[in-house]
Amino acid sequence: MAKxxxxxxxxxxxxxxxxxxxxxxxxAAMASETAGADGIVVHLREDRRHIQERDVRILRQMVxxxxxxxxxxTPEMLGIALDIKPDIVTLVPEKRVELTTEGGLDIITHFNxxxxxxxxxxxxxxxxxxxxxxxxxQIKTAHKMDADMIEIHTGSFCDAVTDMEREKEFTRIVDAxxxxxxxxxxxxxxxxxxxxxxxxxxxxxxxxxxxIGHSIVARATISGMENAVRxxxxxxxxx
Length: 239
Ligand code: PXP
Known about the structure:
Layout: E1 3-7, H1 9-18, H2 25-34, E2 39-43, H3 53-62, E3 67-71, H4 75-84, E4 88-91, H5 111-123, E5 127-132, H6 136-144, E6 149-153, H7 155-159, H8 163-182, E7 186-190, E8 209-212, H9 214-223, H10 225-237
Parallel strand pairs: 1-2, 1-8, 2-3, 3-4, 4-5, 5-6, 6-7, 7-8
Bound molecules: pyridoxine-5'-phosphate.
């Protein structure tokens, strides 16, 4: 059975929108673990738009499943990862102007830098995953640089507009997962997955774990709305 790693970045997005101290991504991580999550994911971005370094340090102390840190392979981030020691680092591309991670990391073009980062992280006991598009050459390269696992970018599948386009993208994911699994790489998948699109993955046993954030946080805000309003109505009634 595939596992679920929950990304709590967008709890921090809501907090940072007001520069407040709530909602707290660590509390959300604890609730996710209580509900059965197999891991907690955070992306510490260079611009610190949501998760802060302090969050990662507290999560390191609190998470009981596994802590997965998404980050760019920069000297600054490597220093932080080697210090905090998450269980897994997922190397991702990062652009300041993007709304969210756009596309997988091109590890063919950036072979030397990524390979060196993989080695440094592994030498300090951290497992390394690389976020790549479902592209066979990228997967073979991840194997060549001894990554522990890959995360297949599911964004193009999730964003596909027509059924034909969606199925074409899904076939790419299936082929990628099968090749990676044959190469003995761990196989994760994520980006853009939601309560509808996840159903298409039934029977694709090569995927070990899904990494999902936005759709879960979005659903939590709506499914929690009635209780939140009721609590405030109750307090106002008592004024
Ligand atoms: N995997 C990676 C590498 C990501 O960058 C993200 C987005 O932060 C996700 C998974 C989760 O994507 P989503 O928030 O759309 O579920």
